[in-house]
Amino acid sequence: MAVDRERDRERMVTVQLRLNGIHDERVLRAFARVPRHEFVLEETLGVAYRDQALPIGQGQTISQPFMIATMLELAAPQRSDRVLEVGTGLGYQAALLRELADDVTTIERIEALASEARRRLSAVGYDDITVIHGDGREGAPDRAPFDVIVVAAGSESIPRALLDQLAEGGRLVMPVGGPRFMRLRFVRREGNAFTDTDAEPCIFVPLRPGTA
Ligand code: SAH
Q: What is the pTM of this model?
């Protein structure tokens, strides 16, 4: 069973990521290490390594591996970077981020998901990721500034608080658009200037206000 999972993971890295243009070796290695099947529901265990988003309860999803890889390649977290993720879900992307950087904070608005993510992350050894239950549109002011911010839910615009919490040279990646058409947006901060680039079309669950 364990060997099969490893093989599934290697195949995911080669077929879904490398052959589709993901080249960053650190990102590819992170995907080869994190056990995606530990971050899906039991009923989807058999398809845990398919290149698709899967339901994780509460109307939410674990994101598609290729889309996460694209975001991680754009944001390029380095080992010493302070990283913030908005939209923890069950914690898969947080674990990938922790493979790349030592200091990872993640915020989830649905309490049941935040606590389940905490449980799953510690169960597979990612026990020093800070999981906050809260509204990620406000960022995490007491842990800011961040070198990297990755938002795993989409909205029409990038919340101001997140831009304010970017460090000098910091990078933010977020799906921007309406429910039917989003595009990844990549923002880099140089001093008080923000440069803004559009990337990949994508579909994500909506970034919602408040907590639940
Ligand atoms: N990063 C996850 C993706 C989960 S889907 C993974 O690796 O699988 C996106 C998540 O964002 C959902 O769990 C949703 O509840 C959460 N979310 C939506 N709006 C939010 C907000 N304002 N603050 C924090 N989390 C939010």
A: 0.98
